[in-house]
């Protein structure tokens, strides 16, 4: 079957066993190397041959030595005045070469192939970086940051990067992903330059620069510092961590107690009496012992009639053990009663049930924060929010900023500038205040009127109009969130 190639005027035919006749060697017209075996030749009498690999070279590539522009495969010109010089070896391009149509950059195919452009991630394998022991102003070709610093250079590729960027390990293992992550000096070699977001901070990534990615077929990428810092701060034994059960390690309620005709003996501290399943049909102040939230009308719950204890049905059926994306060890459900604990997700003091790490005694999540999904749809925002392990974004509900240099967890929108902290993302949509005569206060995301004067009716202090608050429309009652949940404040 005949085929066409851009470098030759006549059709080519595929030949499985090309070789010379003993007197004349067959030479590839693309790379000028000897050709034996699979290849293509001119269907006429032209002395034109191509290795199969040279014939299959991609017409366009993104190359880490010139990441800003696409390079196009070309053949050398017969006009010496139009000759190109390879920027890597500084010799005239006598073979096929890749050329940038936007500038004079050219790279012959031999030098281009030294960067194994495939999805192994080992895209700078045989070259050594040499430190330049002098501070110079440059833009790092690994992280994209411009600074005056000590650089390291690859003498073959003239690849100039921060010395610290040259020392990132080739492989890292983080608890947030099942597989090890592989270092790529240029992410565009392994990912299409579409919208690519770091799985840890949820920020858009520039594929011209270095990153860690999963080479097992997972769509998982992360900034160098995000992945490396997580590995350093939370080291994992790769033999002991799998995230297949990250949010699914359920233990049946019957394993911890008996269930008979809508009755259970719960695995919490309250084991002396059975809890009966009921439906809330009355408007009264029933609060769940597990999450310490109001039990709403038409909500199923368990209760102990002797002790006046209540549990949402969902809280009663929480798994005894679970894994969470924010911690490397399994977490165990613990009943705290009236003892106060500190939730590491929302950074608030809480009561009720917690998920606590047996290995890190001081690490706990409250059940509300631990139940928030990795992808959150909140009624305050039109787009889905994604859990970011590392974030410096300001919470849109409370304006809480990162003021101590420490990364915090956020639910962030990748389509616009919107983020929620765990504390605000887990707020109940309705709340009760004992002195309000009406049914409920509703969580409200914008000011109630255009007066420009906004006060809390509980503490009588001004309210920030940008902050969320609880509001009763019937009596025009507005209150700070902190005043509604007065007993437990942030530290």
UniProtKB/TrEMBL annotation:
<protein>
    <recommendedName>
        <fullName>Phorbol-ester/DAG-type domain-containing protein</fullName>
    </recommendedName>
</protein>
<feature type="domain" description="Phorbol-ester/DAG-type">
    <location>
        <begin position="182"/>
        <end position="234"/>
    </location>
</feature>
<keyword id="KW-0862">Zinc</keyword>
<dbReference type="InterPro" id="IPR004146">
    <property type="entry name" value="DC1"/>
</dbReference>
<keyword id="KW-0479">Metal-binding</keyword>
<dbReference type="InterPro" id="IPR053192">
    <property type="entry name" value="Vacuole_Formation_Reg"/>
</dbReference>
<keyword id="KW-0863">Zinc-finger</keyword>
<dbReference type="InterPro" id="IPR046349">
    <property type="entry name" value="C1-like_sf"/>
</dbReference>
<feature type="domain" description="Phorbol-ester/DAG-type">
    <location>
        <begin position="272"/>
        <end position="323"/>
    </location>
</feature>
<keyword id="KW-0677">Repeat</keyword>
<dbReference type="GO" id="GO:0008270">
    <property type="term" value="F:zinc ion binding"/>
</dbReference>
<dbReference type="InterPro" id="IPR002219">
    <property type="entry name" value="PKC_DAG/PE"/>
</dbReference>
<dbReference type="InterPro" id="IPR043145">
    <property type="entry name" value="Znf_ZZ_sf"/>
</dbReference>
<dbReference type="Pfam" id="PF03107">
    <property type="entry name" value="C1_2"/>
</dbReference>
């Amino acid at each position: 079957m005949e085929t066409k190639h851009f470098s030759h005027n006549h059709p080519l035919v595929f030949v499985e066993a090309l070789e010379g006749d003993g007197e004349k060697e067959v030479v590839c017209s693309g790379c000028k190397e000897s050709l034996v075996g699979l290849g293509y030749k001119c269907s006429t009498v032209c002395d034109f041959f191509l290795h199969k690999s040279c014939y299959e070279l991609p017409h366009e590539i993104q190359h880490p030595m010139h990441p800003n522009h696409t390079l196009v495969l070309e053949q050398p010109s017969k006009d010496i005045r139009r000759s190109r010089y390879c920027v890597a070896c500084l010799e005239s391009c006598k073979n096929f070469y890749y050329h940038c149509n936007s500038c004079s950059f050219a790279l012959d195919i031999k030098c281009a192939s030294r960067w194994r452009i495939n999805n192994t991630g080992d895209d700078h394998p045989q070259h050594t970086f040499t430190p330049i022991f002098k501070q110079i102003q440059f833009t790092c070709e690994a992280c994209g940051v411009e600074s005056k610093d000590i650089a390291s250079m690859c003498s073959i590729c003239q690849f100039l990067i921060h010395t610290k960027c040259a020392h990132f390990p080739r492989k890292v293992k983080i608890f947030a992903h099942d597989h090890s992550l592989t270092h790529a000096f240029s992410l565009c070699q392994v990912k299409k330059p579409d919208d690519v977001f770091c799985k840890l901070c949820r920020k858009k990534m520039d594929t011209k620069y270095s990153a860690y990615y999963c080479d097992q077929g997972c769509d998982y990428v992360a900034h160098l510092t995000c992945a490396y810092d997580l590995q350093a701060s939370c080291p994992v034994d790769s033999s002991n961590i799998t995230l297949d059960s990250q949010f699914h390690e359920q233990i049946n309620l019957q394993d911890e107690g008996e269930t008979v005709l809508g009755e259970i003996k719960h695995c919490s501290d309250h084991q002396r009496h059975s809890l009966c399943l009921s439906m809330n049909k009355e408007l009264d102040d029933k609060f769940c012992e597990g999450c310490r939230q109001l039990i709403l009308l038409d909500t199923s719950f368990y209760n102990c009639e002797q002790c006046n204890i209540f549990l949402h049905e969902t809280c009663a059926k929480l798994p005894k053990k679970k894994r969470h994306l924010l911690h490397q060890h399994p977490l165990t459900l613990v009943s705290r009663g009236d003892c106060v604990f500190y939730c590491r997700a929302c950074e608030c003091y809480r009561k009720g049930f917690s998920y606590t790490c047996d290995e890190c005694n001081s690490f706990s999540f409250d059940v509300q924060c631990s139940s928030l999904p990795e992808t959150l749809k909140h009624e305050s925002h039109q787009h889905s929010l994604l859990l970011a392990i590392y974030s410096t974004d300001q919470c849109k509900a409370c304006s809480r900023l990162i003021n101590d240099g420490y990364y915090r967890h956020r639910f962030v929108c990748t389509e616009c500038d919107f983020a929620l902290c765990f504390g605000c993302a887990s707020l109940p949509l309705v709340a009760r205040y004992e002195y309000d005569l009406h049914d409920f206060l509703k969580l409200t995301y914008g000011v109630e009127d255009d007066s420009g004067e906004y006060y809390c009716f509980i503490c009588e202090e001004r309210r920030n109009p940008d902050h969320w608050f609880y509001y009763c429309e019937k009596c025009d009652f507005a209150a700070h969130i902190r005043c509604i949940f007065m007993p437990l404040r942030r530290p």
